[in-house]
Amino acid sequence: KEVLEAKSEQYETVVRVAAGIAHEIRNPLTSIKGFLQLMLSNEKGENQYSGIIFSELARIETIVNEFMLLAKPESEKALVDTNVVEIVQYAVSLFRHQIKQQNVQVEKVIDSDIPNINSDPKRLNQVFINLVKNSLEAMEDGGELLVSAYYDKDEQSLVFKVQDSGKGIEKEQLERIGEPFFTTKEKGTGLGIMVTTKFVESLGGSLHYDSEVGKGTTATVTLPKYMR
Ligand code: ADP
Ligand code: MG
């Protein structure tokens, strides 16, 4: 328990400091990008370095945005009547080009008796976008994405699974998943699951991972019908 408390304190500190820095970085970043674009359009146009500069700027932008999301206070949570199934469908649809490009087969098994819940659609959007994104990044050479959803009457909870047939996660890595900056990707930020976990928990739910190396990964999001 003490370890857990120390961990959560450590987490809070990381988030607070980083969010402050992220906020300060955002404005100069936007201005650098804008002026760079102007410079390139006024002068000789693109050169061999501009692509690199833009992709590195995009990377900083991703990190900054993820930290800003993380630092969103509880008070910004906006609870409304929410159709989570629609949100899941939307998240998948956002990636249709990548899905096609990577030759990923998508299957959906979604029960028809899933109730709407009082929740925050913006946070849930981010949650499912992060999960689908991770699944696709684990299936660069194609595979299958299975999105399923059902209502557990006994538990009065909604269960959503994002399952992929991707590379999977090693046991030692599975324990570290969601730790700030833990990534195995060259261009990863290691912040996605941290944001996802925080958002799901702020909505009274939980996030669970099952994975087998070489077989694939299942992320399970459980949301209560009634938030306690
Ligand atoms: P990032 O995607 O930037 O690396 P995340 O927090 O989203 O950060 O994920 C952390 C790590 O968890 C990833 O680098 C990857 O190793 C692992 N991971 C997450 N989801 C999956 C998945 N569906 N399949 C395989 N590995 C995954
Ligand atoms: Mg990610």
TrEMBL record:
| UniProt KW keywords | ATP-binding, Kinase, Nucleotide-binding, Phosphoprotein, Transferase, Two-component regulatory system
Q: Which top-level group of life is the source organism from? A: Bacteria
Any single GO molecular-function term of the entry would be: phosphorelay sensor kinase activity
Q: Which residues form the Histidine kinase domain?
A: 20-227
Write down what this protein is called. histidine kinase
User: Which species expresses this protein natively?
Assistant: Pontibacillus yanchengensis Y32
